[in-house]
Design brief:
113 residues; alpha+beta; Potassium Channel Kv1.1, Chain A; 3-stranded mixed sheet
Length: 113
Amino acid sequence: MASSSQNSSSVSKRPRDGEVQKQGEAKRVRYLGEAIPLRDLSKADGNRTNYSETITVLVGETEESAVVHKDVICRKSDFFVAACSRRWAEGREKTVRLPLVTPEVFNQYLDRV
């Protein structure tokens, strides 16, 4: 009798934005469906934090505004590293939209960053 259960290893999982993928020695982060090499996004100034540069994060359907230090949030999140890259309009405009995240969840995230 043949089994009707589907083999879970044959189902491919679609990568989501913010996920870090390892390809050989290089790490890539997905943003807007594209895999971006992290090495291209890393800063050359080492561990020094620049508290003068900020970004605006528009959270939830109502786009509640949160202004955060770019270096602080990028240090803990490959997603924000990619989103703040000048390759994307969000990085050039210094505004990132998170319509599927509630303000409460984002505030909890900021407490941990």
